[in-house]
Amino acid sequence: MRKIILSFILMLFVLENYSQDAETAIVNRSIDLLKIETPNEASFNKFIDNPVSIYSGTPDINIPIYTLHEGMIEIPINIRYNSSGIKVDEEASWIGLGWNLNVGGVITRNSIGLFDKEKSPDLEKYYTNVMNVFNDDLYKVDYIVEGPWSLDTRKAFSWYLREPQFRKVIDEGRYKPDIFYYSYPGGAGKFIIDYRDNNAYILDRNDNTKIEIYTDASNRLYQFKITTPNGIIHYFDFFSSTLLHDPVVYRGVTSETYTLTKSIYPNGQKVNYYYDSIVCNRYNASHVIQTTEPETTKHINEEMNPSKSELSKTLSISSNEEFYLTKIETTNNLVTFETSQRLDQLNGKKLDKIKILSKNAPATPVFEYKFNYDYLQADAGGTDSYYWAKDFSNQIPNHHTSDIFLKRLRLLSFSFLDKNSQPVQTYRFFYNNNKLPRKDSYAKDYWGYSNNQNQNATLIPDMENLMWHEYGLDNHNRYKKIQKPAIYSGTFNYALRATDFESSKSGILEGIQYPTGGYTEFIYEPNTFIDYKIPTLEEVKNGFPSTKMSIYDDNSFFAPDDLYPSNKNKFFTLDKEVTMTISLLLTRGYPNRSKLTWADMAEFKAYINQGPSKIDLSEELKNLCYSQHIQETNYGAIKKDELKFEKRITLNKGGYIIVDLPDRFGEQHGGEAKIQLGAEYAYPMKDKVESPGAGLRIKEINFYNSPSKTERLKYTHYTYADPLTGKSSGILHNKLQFIKHYRDTYDFLGKCYPNYSPPATESFSIQSDKIEISGDNLLSNPYGSMPNVGYTFVKEINKDTSIGQILHRFNNQEPEYTEYSIRLDSPLNGKESEIQYYNSKEELLRKESYNYLKKIEHYHFGLDFYDRINTLPLIYKNSGWTVKQMTENLIHTPCDMTVNDSIQEYWFMRYDRLQMVKYPINSYFVYLKDKTITIDGLTTKEEYNYSDKYQLKEKRIIESTGRNLLHKYMYTNDFNCDIYSNMSNKNMISNVIEEKVFIDNKYLGGRFTEYNYFKTDKKILPFRIYLSEYKGDQADPITFNCPNINKNIYPYQNLVYDEYDSFGNPTHIVQNEGAQVVYLWSYGGQYPVAKIENAFSYETVNTAVASVFGIAGIDSLSALTKIDKTKLNSLRGHSNLMSSLVTTYIYEPLVGMLESTDPSGITTYYEYDTFNRLKRIYIKEKNASGVEVEKTIQNYDYNYVNK
User: Fold this and answer.
1) Are 1055 and 1025 in contact (CB under 8 A)?
2) Which residue of 420, 456, 671, 733 has the fewest CB atoms within a 10 Å radius of its CB?
3) Tens digits of residue pLDDT in 1030-1060
């Protein structure tokens, strides 16, 4: 019989379904029954493990603070920093700018367009009719479909195709479903609600996490229930809504918050979460230009053109109750969060302290952590500076000096406090010293990072720098119209939104000093990507993107490039028609300006030649010079040393010579008379090129012995180039789209004359294309999770490690999008496809290849559409004309709302009245299909198969020798017995019930875990574990038929859990149908306090416990919050246990084990420092004089540096 060996190591009991890897179970057939752990070094005292999220080029700066363990409960508390860059309008969290406290859980609902409407019996048919049009298999796709317009679509939208105030439904937002973000201890992601079946669907899933929604009688959401695959249930209750409004008009709900209030574990343990709230307002501004395209305008009634462009500036105010976590409570322990007021947010709070407390002594924290801050202070700016709060000074009082715009909370350090509340360990943080502008500044780049352009007076970018690939030279007139639309308010200067690397680093974290003294330095560089050219700030200021040519002659033999009397010329070639600017500069020779008059200079020549054709500028030059000569000679005009003029010309494809001819004037002897002729034109950017921008990436991480950086211990350098091209392997996922076109639209305009008798109206109709330019990027993917830039190749170059270089390759695909849709990102992006490991000599050591696949688990879609009738009515705001209200059949006069019985023009009845785009919002399961490992030319391949519940069902290992090892897994949902069906219904489906292993398709062995109900509340816990004893030659034997085990395969009960306490802790274990072990628990079920071997029976131990402690028995002992050490040790002498081996344990709750006494009575002691870190392990023994002394077994020293 295969026996099980009890393994006792370390401190805490872990009973986690025994879902071990099948291969490990076959190699090592022992089973760890109960783990009683001795104290070890706390993880937060070690040098921080800082892996890099290398696909996006951002280091994962994650500092663990504490993990609350209690039975099955495990709640990690850590702080994490986002190093992709600080955005200008970014608000600091309650622990500082860029930092996030990762603890607890929340669900945040964000509206996409209008807030999703609750079901209404009277109006539901309109939503259903639209969705039914797209429900057939034709639309079950994972790509964008443009213009799915038909007569059926038109009928389904009949409720919408009317004036807004006459629509049947006025606030329907479900065609673009809201997005829900969720997080809980151990999980996070996004989901949507499909209102066709009213179910929640996780968008990118890798397990069977289950989300249930709860609504009230009015169909309004009030609670979510998330059940993990191991049966842990998290409840999220409605907390608050964010209401959006401008100073006058309420615009509706934009988001909702649901906070994690309770978690229930399969063993019955509970965790409660408590919150405080404050009412706060947040401000935001948006800028939009709307205009018609004059060349597309067709006047249906008469020739009128009242339209120009309209710039609208909108202030948005969001009001909500912001939540703050105040307390986490378990059966035995508390975690509290203390806050105080902060200056950079109205009514905001910052986190000051975290305390870990035992309910036995709630007044004295076992662990305490303190956060220290200052504020990043922006310049208020003078009266001539620009920022959007100034535009809304009536609605935002004291905007100029208000701290909510000028200050940003910054985390300087956080310290671990000892028992005397003194800091004994401190993490210190160092940041880039570049100043960030005000939060309401216009000085930001396309992606929102600072670019230090404080002269910007709007958010609307200069489109010239973003449209080369789209318009270029093919459509110059169209481009000019988009670039410089007329604005009613007069002149308008667009914002320079180009990126600037130095400015984008403003405020970023650059270093961490650890409590040990070690220092980590982060060196950044700009993201780079291959895309249509987006020029940087430096390139824009230097005139990019353009091609410049310039020639000149200063009429001197002393000029190094001049050889009198040669003509000056330069040859160039155009591969297409080009519009260019020719500029001429004439200098008549200062300071000897009396030598040459402007009449003399009129003899200069300049022209552009193409074969026999010539574009001659000489006559214009001559007229310019004579005009100035007359002004100076006859009218006493101020004398000028220089004259300039420019001319815009268009040249056809071909070769040209640009010529200037000043040489006839002879030697000027230093007079410096000269002609300078230049040509400049923008060149087309049809091809994608490498560009920097979209935030930061990590370039290098250095590890030093101190912040003085006198000794570098090691470093890691990162490169992101494609090995084949040498250029960046980056793909820009956060694409830019600030402009939208509305093609083939119709407006019905009118004027009202109310003073006429009777009141009269004048009206006419316009057909035109329209343009909207926004200050915000109009392209996003709210349903995906992608960085600004993702990299296909990332190389890690390490110093002072055994691995010299690691080359990573990732799945990295371009996003799909259209002008009117959201952006679609591949769910495979970021999945690693290959890793190559090299030594310091660049010799390949190991290669791993991964093949990921995606599967659509649920099809859904969103619709984006606009009405071609009266599309942008604000265009006519200041024209004196008004967009008239209308349905398709009736025209309503704007004077008295009476109805005229006139039929609309024919174009109002077009089937394609709606411009429509359908985009997928599918739920994907992304899984690893296979993995290949190559070492020294030998290859091992692993293949994986999954169930429809996302469980690993098979893992096949094919070795280089040809041997085939197959692991098969069976789960609760694979059996229809009562208890397993019940577990499946509770979503406890990650529990591996049976595991079989085959070699070359022959059964090798297996392991089966049987579950049962325990205690009065029917806890579902492991009951028996079997290891196979089969020696036959079957391909795949039947091992279990509910509810009977196959005794031929599993003849012995290798491990039996006979009893548990009310906390779900095992108290009686039988090994190999013989040896028995009884465990006693206490401290509210947190810790095992005794292990009793060789007891006669469980009942005899229970009787002994009852008599010694004066309680009902073992279960009551578990419930005690304190243990009497004397009584506990007296168990060794109890008559029921005289032949038993009794080991006892004493604890300090939340700190660790204080004493362990073995069956012979020898006690091991564990000593802790003032911060409750393990300091020393010792025993007591008598010396030669018979005096008891302490003998140290091991010391722990925490004064190390990072390595």
Assistant:
1) yes
2) 420
3) 776 778 888 888 888 888 889 899 999 999 9
Give the closest residue to 187 by CA, choosing from 227, 224, 214: 227
Contact 308, 875 (CB under 8 A): yes
Q: What is the mean pLDDT of the chain?
A: 82
Which residues lie closer than 8 Å to 513 by C-beta, 6 or more apart?
427, 428, 429, 430, 519, 706, 707
Q: Is the dihedral of CA 982, 985, 986, 988 positive or negative?
A: positive
Q: Rounded mean pLDDT of 781-791?
A: 91
DSSP 1170: T
Least Cα distance to 429 among 700, 94, 52, 80 occurs for: 80
Reduced DSSP (H G I as helix, E B as strand, rest coil) percent helix, strand, coil of the chain, to 5: 10, 45, 45
Per-residue confidence (pLDDT) for residue 407, from 0 to 100: 94
* CATH among 2.60.120, 2.60.98, 1.20.1050, 2.30.29 for 547-681: 2.60.120
Q: How many CB atoms lie within 10 A of CB 774?
A: 18
Q: pLDDT tens digits, residue range 914-944?
A: 888 899 999 999 999 999 999 988 999 999 9
Q: How many CB atoms lie within 10 A of CB 303?
A: 7
d(CA 314, CA 291): 17
Residue ranges covered by each domain of the chain: 547-681, 1074-1203
Helix, strand or coil for residue 908? helix
Long-range pairs, 626-630, Cβ under 8 A, ≥24: 626/598, 626/599, 626/602, 628/598, 629/597, 629/598, 629/599, 629/602
Strands 204-205, 923-935: pairing kind:
parallel
- Residue 185: cis peptide before it, omega within 30 degrees of 0: no
* Interacting residues of 919 by C-beta distance below 8 A, sequence separation 6+: 144, 145, 821, 822, 824, 861, 862, 864
pLDDT, residue 990, reads: 92
